[in-house]
Write a structure and sequence with these properties.
Two copies of one chain form a homodimer.
Chain A: E1 3-9, H1 13-24, E2 29-33, E3 45-46, E4 55-56, H2 57-69, E5 74-77, E6 81-87, E7 90-95, E8 99-107, E9 111-113, H3 121-124, E10 129-130, H4 133-136, E11 144-148, H5 152-162, E12 167-171, H6 181-189, E13 193-196, E14 200-206, E15 210-217, E16 220-225, E17 228-231, E18 235-237, E19 266-268, H7 280-300
Parallel strand pairs in A: 1-2, 1-8, 2-5, 8-19, 10-17, 11-12, 11-17, 12-13
Antiparallel strand pairs in A: 3-4, 6-7, 7-8, 9-18, 14-15, 15-16
Helix pairs in contact in A: 1-2, 1-7, 5-6
Chain lengths: ~300, ~300
Amino acid sequence: MRIYDLIIIGAGPAGITAGVYASRRRLDFLIISPDVGGQAAWSGGIENYTGYQFITGPELAVKFQEHIRSYEAVLKEGEEAVSLLKDKGAFLVKTDKDNYYARSVVIASGKRPKELGVPGEKEFKNRGLTYCAICDGPLFRDKDVVVVGGGNSALDAVLQMSGVARKIYVVNSAPSLAGDAVMRQKVGEAGNVTVFNAAQVVSVSGGKFVERVKIRNSAGENELQAQGVFVEIGLIPNSAFSREVEKNAAGEIMVDARNQTNIPGIFAAGDVTDVPEKQIIVAAGEGAKAALGAFRFLSMNQF
Amino acid sequence: MRIYDLIIIGAGPAGITAGVYASRRRLDFLIISPDVGGQAAWSGGIENYTGYQFITGPELAVKFQEHIRSYEAVLKEGEEAVSLLKDKGAFLVKTDKDNYYARSVVIASGKRPKELGVPGEKEFKNRGLTYCAICDGPLFRDKDVVVVGGGNSALDAVLQMSGVARKIYVVNSAPSLAGDAVMRQKVGEAGNVTVFNAAQVVSVSGGKFVERVKIRNSAGENELQAQGVFVEIGLIPNSAFSREVEKNAAGEIMVDARNQTNIPGIFAAGDVTDVPEKQIIVAAGEGAKAALGAFRFLSMNQF
């Protein structure tokens, strides 16, 4: 049974930076992640990653990938952690494909978009229904689309689509739009946006691709003709696999100033944690702290 | 009396990143710092700032400066904070030149090199005696130099100078060299290095520039002929001006996972804090957290 020094779960800014530091400390480690780049890869323009005045999310994600690939890091891409347990004096990380053991773990698994939980959602995912306006928006030129949500990320999707799509319907569960005042004003000024407040999506339907979205509000049900659905109703932490790690009410893993969790040897970094700032530069810094914390843990706990 | 939203003390990676975030949140703020770039500007090759596979310290410092200057941030360069007090419901930052008031403060003042405290040190500072081998090393081509210290930064200076200087004397107060095994081995292999262990510098003397360094060990005193002295005996936090802020035994400001100090409204980030990882990417991430923490503090405490 091979026991790694460290397993890093996730390959967004936190996981990649943890990997860079683990490489430089010559740890025997593994990165496990369904994808590389994390949410950063979905960002439009980034102006607050110190050192880069302006870079797009996909560009920064490529730089991160090149950076980690310049080391001999083993990246298990396309694998997802399903459980994390103590087993035989080490940590056992089970993925959907294999089992791995390590003496320390950095959880940097980030967040994923919340799902609607309505009929048709799974069926039409990537067939008109998307959780990433920035990735897929350009595919909907001159189509009619529904944006679900009323916060900043929904408004961001609306503004991005207002110059691309023909008509945009916003389905917002709250009585009025949230998000920044500046963004709400811009949405109000866009000529092709219809907002349904206090409204829910009931179902998504169509043929091979999305054709109709049924919504409901106090006035009753209504069927919108649309070829695209952008779900922007928030994010949930990818923390369910780590049952024994302490979390807050939102499911975020609780860490101290050194990125330690309640379990010695398990560290966490980035958007999956209860650090309130969900920012790329913060995730990168926290990833470095977590990897160096794991290194220190390994030095002080000789196996 | 003008009261700023925020004063950032320091303009290294933590202070600059705090400034970028404060600008983007449109805070009315000021950065006060004797210099820009912090210790990062003194680094040789940097290979662990995620996104840049390789960049030198001075290059990264220039990118940081360009980044902050792309915003309308007010940078009081050449001013040093001498005290931080509560005064009339705000924080008063006194510098060596002026007084400033703010509703919140981010301390990102970093660390500075420890001094020897021997006769001649002040007199010959920048006249042969330096605290920054990376900055000044190239000036000592074919000279004889003394490196004071025995840890990683001293060994780094020795290795950097071994291809530049003629002879290198190492004056190490401990009975043997500390620092990484790899570095100690390289120092041992260099042909032009003489190590004095368990030895102290007694004085530095000369004419216009350094000419002699007197040292002492158990065998007695010894005078080395040298034109350069590199002091590499560690760093101390620039935290003395903030008397009421809680610190650890090393003088580092204690922060929680959100970069709050013991005083509400005062945040700290980077090498001046008790976060053990003294890394550029960590300082940058912590600077972002501190600025966003200050922003949140200001939103919740309307003045």
